[in-house]
Design a protein that fits this description.
The chain is α/β, with parallel strands linked by helices. About 35% of the residues lie in helices and about 20% in strands. The protein is built from 27 helices and 39 strands. Strands 1-2-3-4-5-6-8-7 form an eight-stranded mixed sheet, with helices on both faces. The protein has a seven-stranded mixed sheet with strand order 11-12-10-9-13-14-15, with helices on both faces. The chain has a seven-stranded mixed sheet with strand order 17-16-19-18-20-21-22, with helices on both faces. Helix 17 links the parallel strand 26 and strand 27. The longest helix is centred in the first third of the chain and has 23 residues. The chain is flat.
Length: about 950
């Protein structure tokens, strides 16, 4: 298939798996000379009408000349791509480069004619839209800037493919034909269209796995026990609403059912459709199951089988083959080595997992890669009492195992518009595509909370992840920038999830504290201070407080305009007036329900009954009448803690999360406060300013010329200054001074005072070592400083001295930008020296940076007060610093060839900034980037 072309080698990097509109997959690849039979077979299955639309005349069959033309390409001026399922063509697209006269041409002609043909059975699946994205990316790679297409007016589907793509286009009509011309430069609209299609397709692909109409379990044993038999039992016990099938090729021919579920030796024996296959057979038997499922039309697989990448190199190759095999049939996979999936919707009731009990229905979506972590999370959310007390519920649960195909990114796409999920909790041991994850997280967090525990940075053996050069802390900072609520433990994950699922977001950091324990109130007060909140003085109701006293105090606190949230502390009390758990819970719920705009939390000590009453022993669903779907609220068998009464809340009760420790409640509240602030700021993310003096085309010409010398290079001083100058960044020149006389000559040309610096790698930016002499007022001081440097550090050729004009005094900072292969372009800022190098006090933002991003960036470091007049010092020119950050961001965003920029030091004075050192590294840009066509990862 991958034979050599007429002029260029087969472009393997054009191959891609894509998700189509209906959630199925297809493979897009270049058409080669080996595809003649596939092309003929494909054409025979196309209707006469579609053929007429393609060729503008009856065209019943392809001639030998046609077949040769459509399979022989040079991959430059003539390119053909095919979308395949099961190895067979379902659609094709091709372009032919043309000149101004419309005749075949070669570069530098930058226009091409494009034409599509989609098999009728696959029309409406978004195949043509996906092919247009990919053929446009190929054309841009080959320096083609425009597509021209001629379409019959009756071919409205193809006209819509072009007009809906979002590219700048022109449309004309002559000789009975619609002529469309598309500018292939991506636009904001084309990118928005592409990402909206990506979301819909990937969301639908996950929906097919979580809401199947029918399920078959492969590897079901005849005897109780075993993975397959256990999952089948869990599906049956959960009350799955569709047909179930047990499949095992070892079944006797006369076996008709297993526990009343139809039994079959092969999926081929099942008369009806099978939407989801649960695979629990040995790894060596999985390929046969995949083949049978693909031929039967199964839509997706959950592979529980182990023995893949987690077992070593051979297993990794087996895993890659599994993904290729499944995608070839249009199927997506959860796993392998997965724990399973759960959907508590009453319309589905799917427990295709190893969890023996169905979680209580609720509004929390849960994703974990590890089965062990998934069990721990389900257990925490399932039980009442202990840890975070109270009851919560799950909408959907996915444990992806090795996540060879479906990943957290796909599940985020599903949760984004899932009406049954209000809060998303994710435990990520690794992030396969941080760039995409932060993009999806930002969009999801704008509409519903996303809480994440991120692994330590070392991926488990079974996970294939892109290499990243960014420290773990930097990736965490980028996630927070995207609106992710980053926590460190499973306990904190559940704590935050309970609060966000049950209570509104606080509008500020002001916290009222009230309760019947003075010491517990003070402990809560101190916890608020340590988390950066602004607590009001605690109100002690004393241990004699009744339920009515709690109700009145909470109502007053919620009505107070100086309060944004309330923490209620409660300890057991003894006495005739002490409220029962049920009475106290009812008092708090009724007061909170009267003021639903502010969150309420309870800190309790050994009050199992109160926790159960507050949580209402129901779910995290909104109150009745809020327009949300109601769900089954049958308590699980795990029940309440021993001795706790089963208190049920009345309809419409206001659910309040309860915590066994003040620190845990306050930490969850602090995360909610920060997330609420992010949501308000995200409504106005700022803009990327346009500077009139930026010469983007001049910089592009310079970069092209420099890269013509080699694949990657670090620019010299003159080249660095020239490139940065195109973006309005002008480093101060440093003149080499290999001798004292040349140093004096350079200083005379620059004008005194000057600085003398040693620039050897071990001395650069190390003023603390004495390698820098400042404010040298005349030649005598300069020569004395030169002699001191050479005496201390070695000969001039070893220390590489330079002379530089003095900059105004200010705060030394450092600005860096780097293109990370996994996270994309990242802009970083900090103070120069020990603050950034020793303490790691750097802040980071994803490029492109907006004006609001730049403002927050310089205020995000711990040493930021030094820029704003700390201890009576004069504030420096932070607006000029923000402008510098924005210009560097524009440079790396406009030119992906700029893979690293370092400005150090950048002296920020009272008026203006001075860039005293700069370095730039160039490298050829990747063939595809985040603006490229939709593709599934190929690990």
């Amino acid at each position: 298939m991958q034979s050599a072309s007429d002029r260029h080698e087969y472009p393997a990097h054009w191959e891609a798996d894509v998700v189509l509109r209906d959630g199925g997959t297809a493979r897009i690849r270049p058409i080669t000379v080996d595809d003649a039979e596939r092309l003929v077979s494909f054409y025979e299955q196309v209707s006469d009408e579609s053929k007429y639309y393609r060729f503008f005349a009856p065209y019943p069959r392809l001639s030998a000349k046609d077949v040769h033309r459509f399979t022989h390409h040079d991959f430059v001026d003539r390119v053909g791509l095919a979308a395949t399922v099961g190895g067979e063509f379902i659609a094709t697209v091709r372009y032919d480069r043309i000149g101004a006269d419309g005749m075949p041409a070669s570069a530098p002609a930058d226009e091409a004619e494009v034409a599509f043909l989609v098999q009728d059975a696959h029309q409406g699946r978004g195949v043509a839209s996906a092919l247009l994205e990919h053929i446009a990316a190929v054309a841009r790679e080959r320096d083609i800037r425009r597509f021209a297409a001629e379409v019959l007016p009756a071919n409205t589907k193809m006209i819509k493919v072009f007009t809906d793509a979002g590219y700048t286009q022109q449309r004309s009509f002559e000789d009975g034909v619609v002529r469309l011309e598309l500018d292939l430069e991506p636009t904001a609209r084309s990118l928005a269209v592409q990402r909206a299609r990506e979301q819909r397709a990937e969301s639908h692909s996950v929906r097919r796995l979580l809401a199947p109409g029918s399920v078959a379990v492969f590897g079901t044993g005849r005897a109780p026990g075993g993975v397959g038999r256990s999952v089948l039992g869990n599906l049956r016990a959960a009350g799955f609403t569709g047909p179930l099938y047990a499949v095992n090729r070892a079944f006797p021919e006369d076996l008709k059912d297993i526990d009343g579920i139809p039994a079959h030796r092969s999926v081929r024996e099942i008369a009806g459709p099978v939407d989801l296959g649960i695979v629990a057979v040995p790894a060596e038997d999985v390929p046969e199951v995949v083949r049978e499922c693909g031929e039967h039309g199964v839509q997706g697989l959950v592979v529980l089988s182990a023995g893949y990448a987690e077992s070593g190199p051979d297993g990794r190759e087996r895993q890659r083959a599994l993904v290729r095999h499944a995608r070839a049939y249009g199927m997506r996979i959860i796993g392998p080595n997965a724990f399973g999936v759960i959907n508590t919707s009453p319309q589905v009731r799917l427990n295709a997992s190893l969890a023996p009990e169905m979680p209580r229905p609720g509004r929390i979506g849960l994703f974990a890669q590890s089965g062990a972590i998934g069990i721990a999370l389900l257990s925490r959310l399932h039980r009442r009492g202990g840890g975070v007390t109270g009851t919560t519920g799950v909408s959907t649960f996915v444990s992806s195992g090795n996540r060879a195909d479906v990943s957290g990114n796909d599940v985020l796409q599903y949760w984004y518009d899932d009406p049954d999920t209000d809060v998303a909790l994710m435990y990520l041991e690794s992030i396969g595509n941080p760039r995409k994850f932060t993009r999806l997280a930002r969009r999801t967090a704008a509409v519903k909370p996303l809480v994440v525990v991120q692994g330590s940075g070392s991926a488990p053996q079974g996970h294939a992840v892109r290499a990243t050069r960014l420290p773990h802390a930097t990736v965490s900072a980028l996630l927070r920038q995207a609106g992710v609520i980053r926590v460190d433990t499973i306990t904190e994950l559940v704590d935050a999830g309970l609060l966000l699922a049950r209570q509104p977001l606080p509008t500020g950091p002001r916290v009222a504290i009230l309760g019947n324990s003075e010491s517990l109130g003070l402990l809560t007060y101190d916890a608020c201070l340590s988390e950066g909140l602004r607590p009001l003085p605690p109100l002690d109701l004393t241990t004699e407080a009744s339920a009515d006293d709690f109700h009145a105090a909470l109502a007053r606190a919620l009505a107070d305009e100086t309060c944004d949230a309330v923490v209620v502390t409660a300890i057991p009390a003894i006495g005739e007036t002490s409220p029962s758990d049920a009475a106290l819970a009812q008092a708090l719920r009724s007061a909170a329900a009267a003021a639903p705009a502010k969150p309420v939390l309870v800190v309790h000590v050994e009050l199992g009954g109160l926790a159960a009453a507050l949580s209402a022993a129901t779910s995290t669903a909104p109150r009745a009448g809020a327009g949300a779907r109601t769900r089954d609220t049958t308590p699980p068998r795990t029940g309440a803690p021993a001795g706790a009464p089963a208190v049920e809340a009345p309809a419409g009760a206001h659910l309040i999360p309860a915590y066994p420790a003040a620190e845990r409640a306050v930490r969850a509240l602090a995360e909610a406060v920060k997330y609420g602030q992010w949501r308000r700021e995200a409504a106005d993310p700022g803009r990327v300013p346009a500077y009139d003096d930026i010469d983007e085309k001049g910089a592009a010409r310079l970069i092209d010329g420099l890269l013509s010398r080699g694949q990657g290079l670090t620019l010299g001083t003159e080249e660095t200054c020239e490139l940065l100058g195109h973006y309005g960044v002008h480093p101060r020149r440093a003149t080499p001074a290999p001798t004292p006389d040349e140093a004096a000559c350079a200083a005379g040309a620059l004008g005194y005072p000057v600085a003398l610096k040693a620039t050897a790698p071990h001395l650069r930016h190390r003023a603390d070592l004495g390698g820098v002499r400042l404010d040298l007022a005349d030649e005598e001081q300069l020569l004395r400083a030169y002699a001191e440097l050479t005496e201390l550090f070695g000969r001039p050729e070893e220390i590489r001295p330079v002379v530089q004009a003095m900059a105004p005094r200010g705060v030394d900072t450092v600005v860096r930008a780097v293109i990370d292969p996994a996270a994309g372009a990242v802009l970083s800022f900090g103070l120069a020296g020990a603050a950034s190098q020793l303490l790691g006090d750097m802040a980071h933002r994803l490029v492109p940076v907006t004006d609001r991003d730049a403002t927050s960036l310089i205020r995000s470091i711990r040493t930021a007060p030094l820029l704003f007049g700390w201890r009576g010092a004069a504030p420096v020119d932070t607006p000029a610093l923000e402008e510098l950050l924005l210009r560097v961001s524009r440079l790396v965003d406009d030119h992906p060839e700029v893979v690293a920029v370092t400005l150090e030091p950048v002296v920020v004075a009272r008026h203006g900034v001075s860039v005293l050192g700069a370095s730039v590294r160039l490298a050829p840009p990747p063939a595809r980037d985040d603006l490229g066509p939709r593709t599934l990862p190929a690990y």
